[in-house]
Amino acid sequence: MRAHAILLDVTHRLLMVERGETGGAAPFSVDVPAGERPLAALAAAARQALGRALEMPLGVRVVGGDVWCVVVDPALRDAALVPLRTWAGQLATPWRVYVDTMLGGWEPPTTALEVFHFGDEPALASRLAHHVIKGTKRATASWVAAAEQLGWLGARVGLVSIVTDGFGVPLCAIETTRVERGRFGDAGPEIAEAEGEGDRSLADWRAAHQRYFEAEGARLGIAFSDDAEIEYEHFRVLRVFQRAG
Question: How does DSSP classify residue 153?
Answer without folding.
Answer: -
